[in-house]
Amino acid sequence: MTAPFPTRVGQFVRLMLSTDKPGETVAAADAIRRTLASAGLDLYALGDAIEAGLRVPLVPDDGGEDWKSVALFCRHHRDRLGGKETEFIETILQYRRSPTERQMKWLYDIRERIDRGRR
Questions:
Q1: 56 near 79, Cβ under 8 Å?
Q2: What's the pLDDT tens digit per position in 29-60?
Q3: 8 Å CB contact between 82 and 100
């Protein structure tokens, strides 16, 4: 089974930047170009995505107490979420009020699962 597009690109970038073998660096760069092209993208699109991703905090900036920060963190890592979770995150980000206790539990459960996957 082939890994999802973002996962493959991430794997190739890590290989390209971490190897000390020139041949692997060139092969990984070529693989990145091919993978991007298969999705109708180019290196400029990859650069734009990296820049945009680096502008978003990679962890909640307040120790996780502010539910909006947690929801933004989860949205940033939506590639690790299922469809219902992604829909839930997008919905609560539109709220002007605080989520219910049950919604808060689900939100923090999602964040915890994302954190476990990052280690």
A1: no
A2: 999 999 999 988 898 888 888 877 776 555 44
A3: no
Total domains in the fold of the chain:
2
Residue 115 has a CB neighbour count (10 Å cut-off) of 14
**Is the residue at 100 inside a domain?**
yes
Structure tokens at 97: 């009020």
pTM assigned to the model: 0.47
User: Rounded distance, CA 5 to CA 11, Å?
Assistant: 10
Q: Where are the alpha helices (DSSP H) in 1-119?
A: 5-18, 22-38, 43-55, 67-76, 83-92, 101-118
Residue 60 lies in a domain: no
Q: Is 11 helix (H, G, I), strand (E, B) or coil?
A: helix
Residues 72 and 51 in one domain: no
The sign of the torsion formed by the CA atoms of 106, 86, 71, 90 equals negative
DSSP 63: T
